[in-house]
Write a structure and sequence with these properties.
The chain is mainly alpha-helical and 53 residues long. It is 58% helix and 0% strand. It has one domain. The chain has helices spanning 8-21, 26-33, 37-45.
Amino acid sequence: MPHRITSAVDLGQIAAQKRKLDGLTQADLAGYCEVGPRFVRELERGKPTVRLD
C-alpha cells in the first residue's frame, strides 16, 4: 500500500527512507537533483516552508 502523505514530516520521512534504500547520501541526492545539501536536510526534517518550485 502506498504511503499517505499528510504533512511535510511525512514527505521528509518517505524521502529519507527512499534515499537510504537507494544507498545515497544526502550530498549524492542533492547533486542528482541539482539542489543544495541544505535543501535535502530541511526536506528530510519535514520543514514546512521548504519550497518545491
